[in-house]
Design a protein that fits this description.
- By secondary structure, the chain is α+β, with helices and mostly antiparallel strands.
- The chain has 10 helices and 37 strands.
- The strands form 8 sheets. It has a 9-stranded mixed beta sheet, with helices on both faces. It has a 4-stranded antiparallel beta sheet with strand order 2-3-4-5, with no helix packed on it.
- Helix 4 packs across helix 5.
- The longest helix is centred in the C-terminal third of the chain and has 19 residues.
Amino acid sequence: MPPDPREKLVEKYERSGWPAEPRPDGGPAPGWSIALLVSINRPRSHTPSPDGSRIAFFWDRDDHSDLYVMSVAGGWPLQLTFDRDPAPYWFDDPPQWSPDGRWLALTDKGHVWVVSPEGGLPRLVSRLMTEAGSPRWMPDSRGLLVTTKVDDRSRIVLTDREGEWPRPVSQGPGHDLSPAASPDGCRVAYVHRPPADLNRSDIMLADLQTGAVVPLTAKPSHQNLAPRWSPNGRYIAFTSERTGYYELFIIDVEAGSESQVTRAGADLSDIEWSPDGSRILCRVHHNGAFDLVAVEPTTGQLEDVRTTYGVHACPHWLPDGRAITFEYDDPHTPPDIYRMDLATGQVTQLTFSSPPALKPLGLVTPQRVSYPSFDGLDIPAFLYRPRQPNGAAVLYPHGGPTDQYSLEWDAVAQYFVAKGYTWLAPNIRGSTGYGLAFERANHDACGIDDTKDCLAGADYLASLPGVDRERIAIFGASYGAYMAVCALAFDPQYRFACGVAKYGFFNNFTGWAQSNAAGREDQERLIKHPRAARAIYAAGSPVLAVDRIQKPLLIVHGLRDEICHPLQSEELVEALQRAGKTYEYKTYADEGHGLLRRDSRIDFQTRLERFLDWYLL
């Protein structure tokens, strides 16, 4: 047998200067522990069976993201897979039921598998493909649409449950993804991203009988996403940002016409037709909350289905049209899966991820706040105020950058707020949910203007009662880690007392070269190709300015990271070491982009607490 490649990966732990040590007056707040912090197992990415009797979902527990099924009436879940790799919930594609309910298709280890919900081991489907994922069933329950890689580009192919004779459906060039088969199985709608316009995606229609492919939308520099067929096969619903927000549009395939359905002035997502085609279920973003609404497709009228101070996700109709399932979390409630009767409004919790030890802890509800940045742009944020401030504060920029912080369950924030830390999570320019202009406000200024938004966030924190301006840290993961190091390198006022960088990138030039095709294109979407924007690449690369860093850094990275290459942290650490700066550096041999295994999470949270307590308390 070939050697396990993990045996070649060696963890590193390096410290320079005065290392953080456990403080005798530190430790968790009463009732909290790091073991409790990492104990919550997330059930997620669920889909109902065609007859509505069961749901399939992934459950992040025991260092795996395995597949389970359970009754929509409740009960104990049954485990179908036993060694599925742990996967970040924000990357993982949901399991897919075959229309006859006899099979589930899923992605694992870079391939597509099918498994019976009644039991038995999964069977590999994509053995004739080098890499494949995101399976979608054809109406006959025999064919599978699979997204695979061809010359480092995403393509859609049609195969069967045995994986035989994969046949191309999409044509490229660019990336093709999100396939959806028509109810009669004759056509496939999908999303196409052309290589010449990285801010554009179009809805395409492929005829499986003739092989012809025609565009259904054509809007330069705008995204059109998530095609969904109506039950009668006449209409395709999708979301488009052409109005400034992701509103709902519908294409009449027979008439060849298109119409805008909603004018909500807000982003809509996760759209799904009702079984009778009379309504479209989706979620809508409102200032950090994601509510559920039903849209009447002819009038565009929005009917509230469920609105709370939290985040709804993955809404699905049950086949009778009288009930839905969804996932939900909020600042007080860890993520779980629920069923709702639409006539009565009764909500039934199906999974239970919250340990009883959380109940007496008095969790904090974040406030919606905002503050002006250097150019007057208003930056929305969520402020966690401790009941007994200890003077320390943390600014937490999210990852992405094309993402947002919402009214979600954030156990790490609650843990530190319970200790007395003030916690601010800003949606700096480039974040989603606040309109197209705001989302693109960091284009050609990545690492520059968004860094100034973080510095303005430190000023806002310093203005609050109970916060000592000399004891503010910045902590982030992925793009948030990039922001943390940028803030330490590019701030002449040295507002932050320390920084934490969790699996980030720090040199725009080498980071571009070390990325896969999708990563390079994402960077070019923000700041063009490096040959066309060398000055911007350099100005936003904190590794080129480590001489300006005056405050300590904690840097951690997984050695299997394919999004932000671990060489990015290695390069930063080498530069800090040459410059004689103070840092701590830890790598995790069996982690990728996201620390997912229990031992790694406990180790990191221990280091994070020790580091922040040491430099802020």
